[in-house]
Amino acid sequence: MLTKTASSTTLTLWNGREVPRLGMGCWAIGGPFFAGDTPLGWGDVDDDESVEAINRAIELGIRFFDTASNYGAGHSEEVLGRAIGNRDDIVIATKFGFATNSETKQATGAFADEAFIRRSVETSLRRLKRDRLDLLQFHLNDFPLEQSDAVFDTLEALRAEGKIDAFGWSTDFTDRAARHVGRQGYVSIQHTMNVFEPVPEMISVIEGKGLISINRGPLAMGLLTGKFTADKAVGAKDVRGAALDWMVYFKDGRMAPEFAARLDAVRDLLTSGGRTLTQGALAWLWARSPRTLPIPGFRTVAQVEENAGALVKGPLPADVMAGIDTALARV
């Protein structure tokens, strides 16, 4: 039986707190939401099961949970609020920028004006049942660089008012990641990173500026769990079946063939040392940089236990990392 880990795989946060270098991503537990008929969630969920999985993660030492105000049109935040509430030993990161209607479960637009940000903060505080947001992240990936100054002015003001403890940007653009370095409270970048997308330029910025690298998509939206074959399709309410420009890992709801070949090339290396494929993918991230904090998604206790089990084994050794680089270069 897996028990709470005493792993040395830890990271010191902006507030001096040391936490395991593993968070839990809470997009999937928000349940379905849509842009018209296009699914933006991961399908139906059972809230009781989600709460049980969150509690199991906490039992195993996990202290970082990442969500967003639009996940499930606010439902993800509500589930976290139900499970965690105002516990001060748990760090909750959320995001703002995308508006949704909680009744229709529809996306209603993207906004970044001060009034919207302040309303979003108050709504997130209420849903999460928190007195203060630990980490608030700007969710608009490619927002114009110069216009972002006003956004982060507002975040600085909210920090001064005690509404938030720290802030960051969820972006895959290095110029945006670097733009607000030096502001008091600017501590993190959330960005795509996994075995298939090592993003060395982003890691260089993050390490050079002393930021935290919060890794979304650490399992390539499920490909690096090994649970998908060429014939297995996702459900009708699953975002992985949507025809979205940024949906590279799946095509028409099935694993994209080019990634199947890459996965075959590294499977044996990632599962070395008795790791599952999932655990190897997380271990790869820890070996890439001391600043990485992967946030794999979850919906079940079993998924939480597998993710947390990666901490026991720690980062991949250097020779395995080199072998993965070589294998991917050959594909």
Could you walk me through the main structural features you see in this protein, from its secondary elements to its overall organization?
The protein has 331 residues and is of the alpha/beta class. The chain has one domain: TIM Barrel. 36% of the residues lie in helices and 19% in strands. It contains 10 helices and 16 strands. Helix 2 links the parallel strand 6 and strand 7. The N and C termini lie far apart (38 Å). This is Aryl-alcohol dehydrogenase-like predicted oxidoreductase. InterPro entries: AKR_Detox_Biosynth, NAD(P)_OxRdtase_dom_sf, NADP_OxRdtase_dom. It comes from Rhizobium esperanzae. One of its GO terms (molecular function) is oxidoreductase activity. Keywords: Oxidoreductase.
Task: Outline the secondary-structure elements.
Layout: E1 10-12, E2 18-20, E3 24-25, E4 34-35, E5 38-39, H1 47-59, E6 64-66, H2 75-83, E7 91-96, E8 98-101, E9 106-110, H3 114-128, E10 133-138, H4 148-160, E11 164-170, H5 174-179, E12 186-192, H6 200-209, E13 212-216, E14 250-251, E15 254-255, H7 257-270, H8 277-288, E16 292-294, H9 301-313, H10 318-330
Parallel strand pairs: 3-6, 6-7, 7-10, 10-11, 11-12, 12-13, 13-16
Antiparallel strand pairs: 1-2, 4-5, 8-9, 14-15
Output the strand order for the largest sheet.
Answer: 3-6-7-10-11-12-13-16
Net shape: globular
* Fourth CATH level, the homologous superfamily: NADP-dependent oxidoreductase domain
The CATH topology turns out to be TIM Barrel
Rg for CA atoms: 19 Å
